[in-house]
Amino acid sequence: MPPGALRALPAPGHRDPADSLEALIRRMEELCAGAVDAFEVAAGLEADGLSDEGAGRYGYPHVFALAEDLYERTERRPATPQAPPNPWAGEVWRQLLRGVLFGLPGLCYATATPALTKPGGSVVLMLSLLLSWSTSQGVAYLAYVRLGRGNRPAAAHVMRRGLTVAGLVVVPVIVVAGGLLDAGGAATALAVAQCVYLLAATVALVSGAEVWLLLALLPGALTSTVQLALGGPVRPVVWIAWAVTIAATVGLAVNRTAASGPGGAAGPGGRVEWADVTMALPFAVFGLLAGGLLTFSTVATLLGRSRPSHATAVAVLALSLSMGFAEWILVSYRRRMHRALLSRSSVESFARAARATLVAAVAAYLFVLTGLAVAIAGLAGLSGYLPRDLAGAAATPWIAGGYLGLGGAFFVALLLQSCGQIRAVLVTCASALAAEAAASSAVNPWAVQLAVAGALFAALLAYAFFVLGRATSHR
């Protein structure tokens, strides 16, 4: 009750009915109902000017006796605290735009296929993808840690230094690999360009510059679309447009990391210590394992273990586009779990809500992934553009099932990662990749991928069903 809410006490000998004990109880009801103990009530009475003498007028020896009686008479009705802001309030348009940004570079691969005239060209391109993906994952993790602390200059500094070092290490490796594998100059240049783009695009995505990244992608994406529609040899303007796209993306990355402090100083938290490297290493390894699982079928094709199939191209594109929806569903899942932590009153009730929310999130993602694959296949068929298919229609169900299981496994892995369960993800993904490598020489690769992806999905989902049902996993 605010100061001054109590009326002045009457003079001795005069008894106002409004100043009776019952009236005092009514006036002090709000304070007493929300008080932790009688001492809080006593503090409120004294703050309003009621002393031991005033308590004596109500028949109590001192104010603490009056406070204790008022506290005992009043039913506890503590005020409901204001709910803290939900940290998982995401922007739907931004997350869906990320899916488009993940898929648009695929147009470059479609138009660049004529440049991959040698088997070594595809190998170097995949090597570039794996190394760039894994290093950018690790650096992005370090940047997100600093963004979570509200230190944007330190995050910008970490991205600039980390991705620059990554480029200086990975690019020479790609060039040397291209020479050793006789990949050809065009394929090696494409692999280097892919590396530079992926590292620079990581800065844009982490720093929230998705719209600018879309604008940077437009020259390459639009010219590639026209090239695919017209057909024929790849026109020089396509390569020029993609060069402009990569240059614009690098410029965007430089601009977004320029806020690392006056004179380029990193400020507190900007220095990368050895402990940071060990923290980021698991996430870099996950990027490497995910890339290995995703490109398994392509490697099998390069090694002559399977034939090219348009179903693979459709599935990979659908999986890329679905990552934007995956992020949206993941943020929605974390938002719902935050509300469950505040609203559930028992461990059992929370566990039931957590598992139901997990099942709903996984089902929503699989529905989106399937819908995207069907839509892409339909559009590609109507337009008459599909990659050369030598595997035959019989391979399509195997390929579709394998990539559907792989997409589900990746989504659950991302959920577990966001809740700090990275070690279990690494162990299961590494086991799955090892199983694929061991079985691919004796069994049809499509059957191997379907079986392994399904087992990986089931194992991660079972683990998530158990561990994400605990409130401690959602802190």
| Span between termini | 35 Å
User: What oligomeric state do the depicted chains represent?
Assistant: single chain
Strand content: under 5%
Strand-pairing-aware structural class? mainly alpha
Q: What's the pLDDT, averaged over the residues?
A: 82
- The topology string of helices and strands comes to HHHHHHHHHHHHHHHHHHH
Number of E-state strands: 0
Helical proportion? over 70%
Radius of gyration: 31 Å
Low-confidence runs of at least 5 consecutive residues: 1-18, 261-265
Can you give a write-up of this model?
α11 packs antiparallel against α12. The chain is elongated, with a radius of gyration of 31 Å. The model is unreliable at 1-18 and 261-265 (pLDDT under 50). It is mainly α and 475 residues long. The chain has helices spanning 21-27, 29-34, 38-47, 52-57, 63-73, 92-103, 106-112, 119-148, 152-180, 185-206, 210-230, 236-256, 274-294, 296-302, 310-343, 347-383, 396-418, 422-439, 445-467. The chain is built from 19 helices and no strands. Helices cover 73% and strands 0% of the residues.
